[in-house]
Amino acid sequence: MNFSGITKNKTLYASLSVLIFWYMLHKALQSPIIPNPMDVFKEFGQLLQKDLLIHLGVSLYRMFSAIGISVIIGVPLGLLLGMNEKLDAFISPIMYLLYPLPKIAFLPVLMILFGLGDLSKILLITSIIFFQVLLSTRDSVKSLNKELFYSIQSLGASPIQVYQHLILPGVLPQILTGLRVTIGISIAVLFFGENYATQYGIGYFIMDSWIRVDYVQMFAGILAISIMGWLLFKLIDLLEDKACKWIKFEQGK
């Protein structure tokens, strides 16, 4: 086996490492709580032909909606705060007070205010992603070298051109990094939120399988939510490759 070739493919290397550890744990415990990986993959393939794709689709809809709302509102507000010190001094204390709060505790309040459907769950996830996007955008604007502003303004650039050619390219990598950081937390919150007042979503599917003591199906759901997270990370990587091509150039790639 060409081990060096496997390690170069990071996804393959990580997947094999997890599968080997999973199989060893299954053999060591000899318990139905940790099923054979091959049984889980077989069940996963069968569930894809049934209702698993519906659960994944609902969860992805909630995640993409939350990400979209956070970016649409958080990025412009972050740019505004980064460029306006007085406004930032007024808003930042409020952000610092709200940001550390455990947002998941507000799920009952959101369900009372916005109903038991998708909206309350989307808003719960948004409350986490939004602050990360906002703060990442604001801080990245503040970190831009002031001399860059003087240079582009000396060339006669309009305010719109300053945003287009300096600010947006300068903050985009940090925004994407902020999204990466918050994706894992958001999926955990999604899992929690989908255990209440819903019959669809990968979180509901996993907990329903656990209640029915169907551990193979439960692990198939865990596999599905892992793949969903991996796809979201890959999507962000793809966006970075397309929209931030200069990063690889600076790294000499």
From TrEMBL:
Predominant localisation class: membrane
Protein name, as recorded: ABC transporter permease
ABC transmembrane type-1 domain sequence ranges: 56-240
Annotated membrane topology: Multi-pass membrane protein
Subcellular compartments: Cell membrane
Keyword Membrane: yes
GO BP annotations listed: transmembrane transport
Gene Ontology terms: cellular component: plasma membrane
PROSITE patterns linked: ABC_TM1
Annotated family: Belongs to the binding-protein-dependent transport system permease family.
Stored CDD domains: TM_PBP2
Keywords: Cell membrane, Membrane, Transmembrane, Transmembrane helix, Transport
Signal peptide: none
Entries under PANTHER family matching the protein: ABC TRANSPORTER PERMEASE PROTEIN MJ0413-RELATED, ALKANE SULFONATE ABC TRANSPORTER-RELATED, MEMBRANE SUBUNIT
Pfam families: BPD_transp_1
Transmembrane annotation, as ranges: 12-29, 60-82, 94-113, 172-192, 213-233
Keyword Transport on entry: yes
